[in-house]
Design a protein that fits this description.
By secondary structure, this protein is α+β, with helices and mostly antiparallel strands. It has helices at residues 33-38, 45-58, 77-90, 116-132, 223-236, 244-249, 252-266, 270-281, 288-310, and strands at residues 13-15, 23-25, 63-70, 94-99, 143-153, 159-164, 170-174, 183-191, 196-202, 209-211. The strands form three sheets. It has a five-stranded antiparallel β-sheet, with no helix packed on it.
């Protein structure tokens, strides 16, 4: 199901401005499979890592954002350390950190909660880890296509343009009204924890053309082949999974057969399409007379109801 969220439609070329930006949001919530199972999450840490590795390989500068819940009921210190190791491994630039809060009516609300002080300490530890690394130093001295869409006035009265590149990295530039709402090319001269800055080197850049196989040929040339390959990979993998994965494994063969049938149908001669259309045209639909009769009956019942209510 991860692949279905990153596939793009087949096109020979497309403008970068009309294509999806290089930003991917996937909530991992925890870095331990036992905690994910308690959360009733239908994925594993290994699957999350596979998606990250794949995307970073295909799009090296891609921004991957995630969410982390600190102190889910039953989470041990060792299990939370797995979450710290996961964030340390990928150093994601966007991590939404939250402390567990029981929502009324949910199964987690009835579970034994982790001590409040411990939850706060874990949240603090994860925040410190996140703030300890920098994510944008690799952009220094590079040229970036930036869309300036907003402005920001600071307490000292100084105003700046606020924009983002295709990876949604925040760009701050001295305010100039003519650039608001425009796309420009900047050369990055400063990198910070939360943003980058630079000088404009092209005020009217040509639209950037991106090939349709942006994530690899397999995503656009033969999507049915990709489905077959992903199913085979899942069946042959030895990844740690939740109990639900055992049930899912029994469903892989029917899904593979369905994909095979779909591929055969696509390769059928055009006459089959005509035959299908003929069969569809034979389906009977309610006549206008029947529809009119039902409308009359409904109107009579409505009037009768009004009469009885005022009587």
């Amino acid at each position: 199901f991860f692949f279905l969220m990153i596939r793009r439609p087949p096109r020979s070329t497309q403008s970068r401005s009309s294509a999806a930006s290089d930003v991917y949001k996937r909530q991992v919530q925890a870095g331990n499979n036992n905690v994910l199972e308690a959360m009733v999450r239908e994925y594993t840490v290994e699957q999350f890592e596979y998606v990250c590795d794949y995307l970073f390989e295909k799009v090296p500068n891609m921004t991957i954002a995630t969410d982390i819940i600190c102190g889910f009921p039953g989470e041990t210190k060792e299990q939370f350390d797995d979450t710290l190791r996961l964030i340390e491994k990928y150093k994601l630039p966007v991590v939404n950190i939250s402390q567990f809060y029981p929502r009324p009516g949910t199964p987690a609300a009835k579970m034994k909660r982790v001590d409040t002080k411990e939850v706060k300490q874990r949240s603090k530890a994860l925040t410190q880890l996140f703030e300890s690394y920098r994510c944008y130093d690799f952009l220094l001295n590079t040229e970036q296509r930036v869309w300036f869409s907003d402005k920001e006035t600071r307490k000292n009265g100084e105003t700046f343009l606020i924009g983002h590149n295709k990876s949604y990295v925040k760009v701050v530039h001295p305010y100039n009204e003519k650039f608001l709402g425009k796309c420009v090319i900047i050369k990055v001269t400063e990198t910070h924890k939360w943003h980058i800055a630079g000088e404009i080197v092209n005020e009217n850049p040509e639209p950037e053309q991106v090939q349709a196989n942006y994530f690899g040929d397999e995503f656009v040339t033969d999507p049915i082949k990709v489905s077959e390959q992903s199913i085979n990979n899942q069946s042959s993998s030895t990844q740690v999974s939740s109990p639900k994965s055992e049930n899912n494994s029994t469903q892989k063969q029917p899904v593979l057969e369905e994909v095979t049938n779909l591929k055969q149908n696509v390769q059928e001669e055009p006459k089959n399409v005509v035959q299908s259309a003929t069969v569809t045209s034979e389906v009977k639909v309610p006549s206008n007379n029947l529809s009119n009769a039902l409308m009359i009956v409904a109107a009579v019942l409505f009037v009768a109801g009004l009469y009885l209510s005022f009587r």
